[in-house]
Design a protein that fits this description.
The chain is α/β, with parallel strands linked by helices. Helices cover 27% and strands 27% of the residues. The chain is globular. It comes from Phycicoccus sonneratiae.
């Protein structure tokens, strides 16, 4: 099979398209013929080995040579003890723990896969698992009349966070670059901010802040919150995340606010509700563009540099 591999940390130039032996599924696993794999910011971070938490499990070199965790494809073979899926089933899922999606074939734990809704293409399905889980869990505090700010609202997870908050009746502020302002408006944002020109932490106060690219001080985050408000970050620099976990928790308790990291639960039960709403047309799967397997380096760079308007997907087959 063909696969894109990395044997060291670095930029897109360390990636190579090679031919590898076909993998074999073990107990509880399936062999998946990959049709599409979306690019997540975690792929870019693991490629570069930065922030520091991207090196967990592989301090000097990547623990896994093939990136790509949000996959959609067709089951080709079953490992011992698998009864939840059958050969020929169209499935999708999040393989964050094992990766391997930037390849023609990959091995996946059967428990991490779900049937692909007929109303979604393979590209659309691959765009959803991680982003849908983040959006569903992050917006559970959004409701009618709440003031919600999504920082990074024009990216893969942000577009779903924005839509879910807006559908819940919240007043939504979307923050991203100038190139994404029209996109955020079209998806339901009431207010859009270009973070290079306006400081969103001074535009509140908000009842809920979902920060997908945390890099500010906890004092700025506390300033953005109304009394009783919640700040939750999902991604960002190691320094920002550690400050939120330590100083942020204490500062929040002292001021009647809640500052913390969104602990995202994984698995089909956490992305299927959003996928069903997308299949029904209630929510939009915003795919920025697709790339062939040969152009995985360009796909990763587009996401890593923050240029994507929605989700970037690699069409493997």
């Amino acid at each position: 099979m063909r696969a894109v591999v990395q044997d060291r940390y670095g930029g897109p130039d360390v990636l190579r398209l090679v031919t590898l032996p076909d993998p074999r599924p073990g107990p509880g696993e399936v062999l998946l013929r990959v049709h599409a794999t979306s690019v997540n910011l975690s792929d870019w971070e693991t490629l570069r080995g930065s922030p520091a938490y991207a090196r967990l499990g592989g301090l000097r070199r990547p623990a896994r040579s093939v990136l790509g965790s949000d996959v959609a494809g067709v089951v080709e073979a079953l490992g011992e003890g698998v009864g939840s899926v059958s050969v020929g089933d169209e499935v999708f899922g999040d393989l964050l723990g094992t990766k391997g999606g930037f390849a023609e074939l990959c091995v996946a734990p059967a428990a991490r896969l779900a049937p692909k809704p007929p109303g979604l293409s393979f590209v659309e399905a691959a765009a959803l698992p991680q982003s849908a889980a983040i959006a569903l869990q992050g917006t559970r505090w959004a409701g009618a009349g709440t003031r919600v700010c999504v920082n990074g609202a024009g990216g893969g997870s942000g577009v779903l966070c924005l839509q879910l908050a807006a559908r819940a009746g919240a007043h939504v502020t979307g923050v991203d670059t100038a190139a994404k302002l029209d996109l955020m408006r079209s998806l339901g944002a009431d207010v859009v901010l270009d973070h290079t020109r306006e400081d969103w932490t001074r535009q509140g106060p908000y009842d809920l802040v979902l920060d997908l690219v945390a890099h500010r001080s906890v004092l700025a985050y506390r300033r953005a919150l109304a009394p009783g408000g919640r700040y939750r970050c999902v991604g960002g620099t190691t320094r920002a995340l550690l400050r939120v976990l330590t100083v942020g928790g204490l500062l929040g308790r002292m001021t009647g606010r809640s500052l913390g990291v969104l602990a995202v639960r994984e698995g089909p039960e956490h992305f299927l509700p959003v996928a069903a709403r997308c299949a029904e047309g209630e929510l939009e799967v915003r795919v920025d563009r697709t790339y062939p397997l040969e152009e995985v380096p360009a796909a990763l760079e587009r996401v890593g540099l923050g240029r994507s308007l929605g989700k970037v997907v690699v069409e493997v087959r």
